[in-house]
């Protein structure tokens, strides 16, 4: 939340509690504090220590970036660093990401930040970029915009309505979980893109399906992928916490063969 430092920490904590659909009693039990003390914090009658802010953030599953903002709102210094991937300090992170991306080949895999901007990708991702408008490939490339834009990948997605509903639903849940206004704006933008296929309200598997597939037309072939997301398990750096590896694995033997032969 961009305006975190301009608002009272109690008000912000209350918003996060309500966002997580927790009562004061439920949160106080989880955080092992009294309901009275939590009420005083939320109403501004008590200024929480940095430890108290972090304890509440932990139980509210507040993202690291927003935890720093809540600490600032309470008059404390941020504790989570915001690394730059281009620096020498993050060289091991870059190397680890590159190793994972390379290991996925010949299957497409890419790294994105919280805003779904492309950070890195392996060579196999090139099949998704072929034919996309050059304007959409100017850095920073937003992979969700690229996937649903009519001048991007969308014309080559055979099940566009199904995939679009999946993407928008996932983005909606992410925006709700993080309270990131940038994700809210991205969701509004993507919803405005045209789609000539029906979009299911509820994801239902077809016969033999275990996940929503991406059905993609490439060089006269119909390829089917299932996507998988990987994140760092114990991040203490904001940048690291916001990175995710999105991989696309073959959903059928024909796709696997086509990718191995490419």
Automatic annotation (TrEMBL):
Pfam family, one: HTH_31
Recorded superkingdom: Bacteria
InterPro entries from the UniProt entry: Cro/C1-type_HTH, Lambda_DNA-bd_dom_sf, MLTR_LBD
GO molecular function, one term: DNA binding
Positions of the HTH cro/C1-type domain: 13-67
PANTHER family for this protein: BLL4672 PROTEIN-RELATED (PTHR35010), BLL5781 PROTEIN (PTHR35010:SF4)
Protein name, entry field: Transcriptional regulator, XRE family
């Amino acid at each position: 939340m961009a305006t975190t430092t301009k608002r009272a920490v109690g008000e912000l904590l209350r918003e996060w509690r309500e966002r997580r659909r927790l009562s004061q009693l439920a949160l106080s039990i989880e955080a092992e504090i009294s309901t009275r003390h939590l009420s005083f914090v939320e109403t501004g009658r008590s200024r929480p220590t940095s430890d108290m802010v972090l304890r509440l953030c932990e139980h509210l599953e507040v993202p690291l970036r927003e935890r720093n903002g809540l600490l600032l709102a309470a008059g404390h210094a941020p504790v989570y660093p915001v690394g730059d991937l281009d620096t020498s300090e993050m060289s091991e992170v870059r190397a680890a990401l590159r190793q994972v991306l390379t290991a996925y080949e010949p299957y497409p895999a890419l790294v994105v930040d919280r805003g779904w901007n492309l950070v890195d990708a392996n060579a196999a991702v090139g099949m998704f970029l072929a034919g996309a408008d050059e304007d959409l490939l100017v850095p920073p490339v937003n992979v969700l915009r690229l996937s649903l834009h009519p001048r991007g990948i969308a014309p080559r997605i055979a099940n566009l309505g199904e995939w679009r509903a999946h993407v928008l639903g996932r983005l909606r849940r992410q925006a709700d979980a993080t309270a990131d206004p940038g994700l809210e704006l991205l969701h509004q933008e993507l919803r405005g893109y045209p789609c000539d296929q029906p979009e299911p309200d509820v994801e239902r598997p077809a016969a033999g399906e275990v996940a929503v597939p991406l059905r993609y037309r490439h060089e006269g072939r119909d390829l089917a992928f299932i996507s998988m997301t990987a994140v760092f398990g114990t991040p203490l750096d904001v940048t690291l916490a916001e990175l995710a590896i999105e991989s696309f694995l073959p959903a059928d033997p024909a796709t696997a063969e086509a990718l191995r032969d490419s």
